[in-house]
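Review box. Two proteins, two foldings.
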Amino acid sequence: MVRDEKKLSRVRDGMRREQIQVLLSHVPENITYLSGAWCGHGMSYVVLPLEGDPVLILPTDEWLPETWVSDIRRYPSETNQHFCDALDAASKTIKEVLLDRGISSGTIGVEQSWGLYFATTMQYQFHIINTDSLTRKLAGYSIKDSSQLMVTARSIKTHDEVKALKKASRVAEVGLETFHRSLRPNISEIEVSNRIENEITTQAVLKHGAKRVLACAFVVSGPMTAEGYKDTVGNTRRRLKLHDPVMLELIVAVDGYSSDTTRTFVVGKPTKKQRALFDAVHESQSTAISAIKPGVRAAEIATISNDVIRQHGFDQYLAHRLGHGLGVSPHEAIPTLHVESKDLMQPGMVHSVEPGIYGAKIGGVRIEDIVLDTETGAEYISEYPRVPE
């Protein structure tokens, strides 16, 4: 793993604008962004001064993930014989680091208003640090919210980040292919989901050289595809039937970088009515992607997509935004592709384009791909076939 100086420069530019002398990051995905370390507990920190190298701080009971950071500090965890207040122990180490770097006063940036946390490698649980308690332990320093600084820095991807995102997409295609070939009558949603997640996690490590991987496959079928835009729908015991539409929402993370794709296929051959739905959504996506250029308003791209759906007569079935940013989290705030978005498309942005239509009478169809915005337009990062044959 190598140091990505462009990422650090973007963050430090933001620190200078905000007059922040040192950044103290506690949000797991921001720790990955700043250090490369994909930590699990949610109890790790990165101290990034304006000048000098960052410091990675972890509890003693956490395995050290791969990182390019050379200055790694440990704080004590609970043992068989002694309880330990993790926040108190961590704050002591943080203050030691600050003093070691000659920072005895000034403004520290902390993500005080961070809202959405992406899962860590532990999956089932991780700690969310109470920032009020943390900042109270940093008496003598001025505290400033650095949340927006990090959101903005992460919105433009570096060359190394794009490579990592393309790797995550290649791994995700293992799941898309497994989904496609698993569709047959009488198999259950949960069996399809399990096959997808198992194939991804196995091949990611053994074939694609991943150190750590997460795979979350949500499979919904038949009439319930009309609810396919809602969180965690599907993965039930329902068994697929001939001509069922089947939707896969697939989120994959490979060594800290994400992929977020959706495919809707059919058990057997699609009917004429189903084909009309697929054609509308596919045209909506491709037309919107073709319109992406530097400086174009994200709201305009979303409107173009909606207009195509409207021309096909399905606009009453629109339910959600067209897209979102993606990087060390599968959902990042910039850019937001929505008719009310204020964002402008810029080279280096990576985001989803995911038109969908949903209704009780028609079921649901969504096609979601990840694209990279360039100086001349947008190019697909995810490549798997988008419509059923």
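Next protein.
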Amino acid sequence: MHPRDWIEVRPQGVYCKAGDFYIDPMQPVNRAVVTHGHADHARAGHGHVWATPETLAIMRARYGETHYLMTENPLAYGEVVQIGDVRVSLHPAGHILGSAQALLEHGGSSIVFSGDYKRRPDPTCTPFEPVPCDVFVTEATFALPVFRHPPLEDEIVRLLVSLAQFPERCHLIGVYALGKCQRLICALRAAGYGETIYLHGAMQRLCELYESFGIALGPLELVTPENAKTLAGKIVLCPPSALQDRWSRKLPDVLTAAASGWMRIRARAKQKGVELPLVVSDHADWDELTQTLVDVGAPEVWVTHGRDDALVYYAQNHGFKAQGLHLLGYEDDSE
């Protein structure tokens, strides 16, 4: 039985008919398999939730202990559970802490939903593992050949050079609070930056959660009204939305930076008033997306969450059966 016979797209998201559950539903449902903790994939209010222990911890941190209505079901990587008539297991996606691909097996066929993923080394999460299957559903956030992410180490060097050149300026970096923030901190530590890194209050809880899972982040402090004026020559991390708001005005001579795959588009950086665009992404770039199709080896590919046309065209021209799986509501801007 082909997965198209037991998988369908509904307004709530991708629905598995054979198991009566959704994958990353956008609205509260009775049964949900959640691939990772970003808000466009993990919502509160589901009846029963299956996810990795780390993702469930992230959901509790963001939505409270009662983010689910009935049961919370932790699944370790590789552990198999039966939901309805479907065997479900989760496998590392390399996107953020606890991120997973969902493997569904039913009726002699299998399908993998990648969720969001990257292929670069990242000490904050388990690396992506190709999972053999009949149909591979891949994200396509950066599925255009223009998106080829530079090495993270090169972007960290650019940041540290700027810090040395402008010691009188506070380097304020807009980063997504979950995943990107912690990865950037770890990259700075790996590059030898041992000084205190200062945080917007929105980053604190998730940094503490990462540390509770054994990921050392080094000395961190919150920005306060008392210390804000003293942060010349320091690195401050904040949500992208805080770069231009009133909160940032209390910092001394701010040099605005942003860490995102979208910083590859210089016009976008200029539009957002970013002086130092850092091309740092937690998503696969074009070369990694196309290589992943080969590594997984599924004869059929469904493409979703982004620019599906280019990747579908590439896949079809390289021997894969491919089509777009059009889902509404998943952000590609949360980078």
